Amino acid sequence: MTRAIGVVLALLLGAGVARGQDLWPGATYDPAIPTIKSVLGHDFGEEISAPEEIAIYLKALAAAAPDRTRLVEYARTWEGRPLHVLAIAAPARISRLDQIKADLKRLADPRGLSSADQSRLLGELPVVTWLMHAVHGNEISSSDAALAEAYHLLAARGDAMVDTILRESIVLIDPLENPDGRARFLFQNKLGRAAVPDGERFSAEHDEPWPGGRSNHYLFDMNRDWFAQTQPETRGRLAVALDYFPHVVVDLHEMGGDSTYYFAPPADPLNPFITPDQIRWLETFGRANAARFDQRGFAYFIREVYDSFYPGYGESWPIFNGAIGMTYEQASARGLVFTRQDDTTLTYRHGVVQHFNAAITTAHTAAGNRERLLRDFLEYRRSAVVEGEKAAAREYVLLPGHDPGMAGRLARNLAGQGIEVRLATEAFKVGTREVPAGAYLVSAAQPSGRLARNLLDTHVPQPEAFVKEQDRRRKKRLGDQIYDVTGWSLPALFDVEVVTSAQALATASTPVRATPDPVTSALPPAKVAYLLPWGSDTPGAVIALLRAGVRVHQASRSLTIGTRTFPAGTAIVRVAELGAGHRETLAAVVGRHNLPVVALDSGWVDRGISLGSGDVAALKAPRVVLAWDAPTSSLSAGWTRYVLERRFGFAVSTVRVSSLGRLDLDKVDVLVLPQGSYGASFNDDAVRRLREWMRGGGTLITVGEASRWAAGEKVNLLDTRLELRGGKPDVEEKDKKPVDPPSPFDYDKAVQPERERPESIPGAVVRVKLDQEHWLASGTDGETQAIVEGQRVFTPIRLDKGTNVGTYAPKDTLVVGGLAWEEAQAQLAQKAFLIHQAVGQGHMIAFAEEPNYRAFTEGTQLLFANAVLLGVAY
Ligand SMILES: [Zn+2]
Question: Residue 404 C-alpha to ligand 1 middle, in angstroms?
Fold first, then answer.
């Protein structure tokens, strides 16, 4: 077709569309490239494209322009939906894409790069711009913008900007990071849709029921999962990142519909591992977007709300690999039309248009700065090595310690995100400290050193001025401006001890890979029993054995055989109890979980309890119910379900809270209440039923806000109380006397609230002391770390009522990383973290905080697994 026809098509596309609603005024398109309308039956922004339609259109584009595209399925979601990335570049680049990817990797490792190679790479290589869309499934316009971006880049004719983009860059378009969430959103939106789409924000098409479309199948916020890599979608994206080492990365989101548009530069605070060069680039990209938005008359804001501190965002993780990472946020119509507070109407199409303009402008800005961006990327990776060489912690040594499985898990996590990790094959010394073979080494002096330091340092500081401002705000009871957690140190949360060395360590070592080598060694012969030390890998293995019918016991106190002492918690499999095929099952499970197993030919113990002692408990696979749906917190419910099902392999029934009353509790061993506000969900009779069920042997596990509910005066399932600020119990005050005004009058005192919850902690990592004599602490060394978020302080339970299995450390050693105000530290120190209360034959187990936080808190996840698995045995 001629250009004239293309112009006519463009005019038709724009016909009937209000000002500012056309994609790119003046664009003409090649009719050989199929429009979204010709493939899916609706135009850009006319309908919310379904995940399946997005895949269909991508394939149609790739088929129409095979010389300029490469379409790759990079992962599958839990619900089986494909995730795609479409590479768009000039034909000469697509035909050599594998060679170019090899060169991009070469550029990402400046060590040993000759100046001739460097000049060649900087001269030849394209800049890679990665546009990712809709990690939150209800942030819908992002994906339709992505389809428009791909169409525009492939079909635009005579467009100087597109020509520059294709000449200088490779654009990677991931149109939909969260297909499961989008499918969930769309199902509800279409189910609720009026005859004519309704802009009322509380109409059924906008107002999402629990859990909403934001999260994935396990209800994770995948924009927090980048370094944790718990979800298959995230792991797939990390593989794309390490395949291309993109230089510019944009994660396109949506925010509340009354807002406008947000792009970089971000709000304070910035992570200290972002360099001045990167900050300058954030401004360059921001200014280019601003110019485009000004030209089109689109409102926007910068430097507000969206910070760049936590390293697990889609925008921030790539930053620490050297990219310019940015978040864009479009006001969401959360449907096809949305009536704003000011009575104007926001259309879905408008969101598509704005995202599209920001994305294309960004790709053009990147292309126009190709060589400078490549040079600065190289410099980021080079200076990371140099800075690492000078760092006080030049080498991090992860000690295998009491739970080698935990250190191995952390090492593989780091390796999975492109950080070089070595396994020491010999013993060595760091200063005077003896380190055994089997320790892991991570050098800060590597191209990914800033990412490694971000994750391995105990504390990543926020700028002093920012902290001071938050202090000022809290004293006035203004909300803080902290967007996410302030502590995330992985060694602390995996409970792995780290020693650091200022010198490089030349220890014999082998590289660690992300996937463990399968253990092939056969089960050693044993006449009497196999002992499995308890640790982070044991609950999963024991559940697998129990579900396969293998009998497993647990020593509730320590025992010594010869020179070897097995601590309380050690699992015991008696040879005489092994049935047909059980030996093979045991061998397979022990191998799969990489458990060190000790074979015994005699039951004679030298000290401690015997294998046949009354203090050895018989374990059984518990029947577990997890409370689901409103009023639970979807994040907490999802994390809990994931940790139970996928991390440890429990069989779990998830039961809606509204159906719990009809559940036959006699068939349930363990009921888990994730965080939520249960006040209206359990009447007195329901609470009485729970108590009766516990008396008969049931284990009730409450988490965070659920524990708060259980400790409430009226519910009283937990025999302790929450504290108010200052330490008074949070109970109803009878005979309240009027408070005399301070004399002489003191304004500051007079304005203090009378009843107030404790100072809030915005997600810090704190130390917890554990009672190793209690079965809930099986597999620990008496101490672990937890994430504390919020305002819950539980007074420790009295000795006659229960056991404080976990208490927060004294104030001077309490905070490991992150921000916790002095007053908060003082009140939290030595208060209860994990409470056990025997109730008849059963148990009440309360976690003050979330033990399964984002599923990256391995240390407290072990305590949670113990609670679920061991209650039935004690
Ligand atoms: Zn979002």
Answer: 37
